[in-house]
Amino acid sequence: MTHPGVVPLLDRVADAVSDAIGRTRPELAGADPVLRPSERADFQSNAALALAERLGVRPAEYAAELVAALAPGPGRPVATAAVSGPGFVNITVPDRVLWAQVAARLSDTRLGVPATEHGRRTVLDYSAPNIAKEMHVGHLRTTIIGDSLARVLGFLGAAVIRQNHLGDWGTQFGMLIQYLDEHPDARWRHDDVADGAAVSALDRLYRAARAAFDADPNFADRSRARVVALQAGDSPTLDRWHDIVAESERAFADIYAQLGVLLTPDDSVGESFYNPMLSGIVAELLEQGVAVDSNGATVVFSAEVTGPDGAPVPLMVRKSDGGYGYDTTDLATIRYRIDTLHAQRLLYVTDARQALHFRLIFETARRAGWLHDGIEAEHVPFGTVLGPDGTPFKTRAGGTVRLGDLLDAAVARARAVVAAKNPGLTATELDAIATQSGIGAVKYADLSTARVKDYTFDLDRMVAFTGNTAVYLQYAHARIRSLLGKAGAPAPAVATDGPLETAERALVLTLDAYGTTVAEVGSTLEPHRLCGYLYRLARDFTTFYDACPVLKADKPQRGNRLALCDLTAQTLAHGLDLLGIAAPERM
Ligand code: ARG
Predict the structure, then answer these.
(1) CB-based contact 346:338 (threshold 8 Å)
(2) Which top class of enzyme applies to this chain (predicted)?
(3) Model confidence over 216-234: pLDDT tens digits?
(4) Whole-prediction pTM value?
(5) Collapsing DSSP states into helix, strand and coil, what is residue 170?
């Protein structure tokens, strides 16, 4: 059974306005009630502005009709309705209805959020670092965004299948394996080198192999022979390849643990997995006439995208030397994920520069009939992480920034900031909090930026206690938890007939919109909407807390205010968790 959830007031009032439209003018039944949160009331409907023309009356006239039809009545969540401006209808909700929402959300383990993605089989491709190479800052965004989407969609009830499309196949492995064989003294295994250094060693050896390949034609020939051996399944070559993959995956697992992401080795389905399917894919495309031969290679000419010369852009499915690349493998992911994993929604979280790649892949899969109606395939693009100078983030020496180093630096910075704010913490507490805040800060800075935009990696801003940061939200949460701790006994039931002040009202309305925001993230795949919501919630809470004493208030206000504190803390912690960020009890 789908969890029905607590219906948000926005939806209930929208229904009331729809109902009023149908009663006043049956011919308009089903028209959009155009309901929004309002600065002047709880909500405002702009329906009259949109509908008056169809009726041949002035908007204010029809707004007045709607107001009359919205008069308080049994079951109608309306306390007042009034015409405003040229034809807006301002609506307020009865206080007891607002308090009842708080009570209903507090008594539900899901905070009243319905499972809007219930049962939808969603394959989520994210992270996907490359074997024998270090994870770098370029893998940060896909890993963080993908993981947050996995959490949000999972919470909304989707059957999320994570796929880590590791770059574990290709001619470069022939080169690396050949080089390792010719340099038996090279040390690159976890057991032979310092902690965490195995993949760095492999990365270095890989560069050395490439240099040898470019400089020495004989080595290049031996490397090519190795590729053939690898593809033919030669067993010593395969053993060596397995070793390299395992060592790299160990290093990735360390980063995943540090980041606290959901990915496990079971989610690894690398490029090599699809290798046996590629010749069949190309044969089928040729048979269907979707792919054609072109100068010895096999290509699909796009029917939708043309290049600068006006000619259709080709997708290379088999190179003239008979090899397959990234494109063909991604066609195979679509087939496999639909036919075998039974995906209803396919998501690929990679940087925006791959937009054309996915456009061509999806087009080809549609033409081949693999990607059919009712299945949604989406590239989930994101912008670049920039350095302080506004260009793609590099180390001072101009090299790629290792993800591990970056995360260590963030934790160290958070430690200093938290220690200065709260000198009373023990070293053990400080260690734990610094990790949660430092990692949270990096994740939040990434997730709170509109996904397709670039952002600047600025540690000082990320770990600040003020502004739209994880640390600000974590601190807001910890403060409320400490307040609740001081209140002692568990809060009594919400008194729905209690008074409701302006700042309380604003807070209740924001709390009530949590599920709507999470559902929006599920459909738009934009976690920054949740960040923006949590920031607004924390600020509405601060305004409430400045205006309304909690512990010193009398009954029933004290209990009701504690309920607001409790629901705010739970909502903050829950929302942070959906972003993959911890909410410590103390800070
Ligand atoms: N390994 C690739 C990279 O590091 C990303 C793969 C993304 N997933 C996919 N199915 N193409 O850029």
Answers:
(1) yes
(2) ligase
(3) 999 999 999 999 899 888 9
(4) 0.95
(5) coil
